[in-house]
């Protein structure tokens, strides 16, 4: 008796189901890896932010980038007590007059920047400190998103005075010149604690564009801005908007 011949299985019909059966566990595994990776990154940032509550940042990503480009940078830490009070008020008046009253993000300014499709604008001193201390240079939506998530946490674990202290020490005041102590010596040949009103105003107005504005050789526009900042610094002292970082 002739044995029946078995026809070969057509695996083509089973291929979709076979791949779907394999794809489900693979996607679940990738999802678990992604979730744990995000948690690990979040924990690193949380611990990092807590450490900087007491430990001064030794360097930032942008400083490293500029050092690689320029060969060397100027950077010297100075405690906020050794910074002229006028300079502190001038920087706040120039960059974020409501620094003492907001929770880290100026919602109105952010909404305006979003309406204009901008990747910049609306940044408070708190946001700029987070960007400079923890994040990479450049303008993109991912960095802005991380900045927006991290800023409220930093506002919670640091004092306003600590925020301003770190900002003043890691901000760029000229090409390759970081921090107010290095800037004071570089521009005017004095320590940060010895800056006068005019010098403080001029240093404050170069912050948005340290490579394009000069505190040593200010043009007429820079001089006008500095005069306006000096007046603003006096005003925030009188109306109490400097209380959170004053001695």
Can you tell me the overall shape? elongated
Order of helices and strands: HHEHHHHHEEHHH
Characterize the largest beta sheet: strand count, sense, and whether it forms a barrel.
Answer: 3 strands, mixed
Care to count the β-strands? 3
Uncertain regions spanning at least 5 consecutive residues: none
CATH topology: Penicillin binding protein transpeptidase fold
Question: Order of strands in the sheet with the most strands?
Answer: 1-3-2
Instruction: Give the overall average pLDDT.
Output: 87
Q: Report the end-to-end length measured between terminal Cα atoms.
A: 107 Å
Number of helical segments with 4 or more residues: 10
- How many structural units, i.e. domains? 1
Can you give a write-up of this model?
With 247 residues, the protein is mainly alpha-helical. It has a single domain, classed as Biosynthetic peptidoglycan transglycosylase-like (Penicillin binding protein transpeptidase fold), CATH 1.10.3810. 60% of the residues lie in helices and 3% in strands. The chain contains ten helices and three strands; from the N terminus they run ααβαααααββααα. It has helices at 11-51, 61-70, 85-95, 107-115, 125-134, 141-157, 160-170, 180-188, 197-206, 220-238; strands at 74-75, 172-174, 177-178. The chain has a three-stranded mixed β-sheet, covered by helices on one side. A hairpin with a 2-residue loop joins strand 2 (172-174) and strand 3 (177-178). It is elongated, with a radius of gyration of 26 Å. The mean pLDDT is 87.
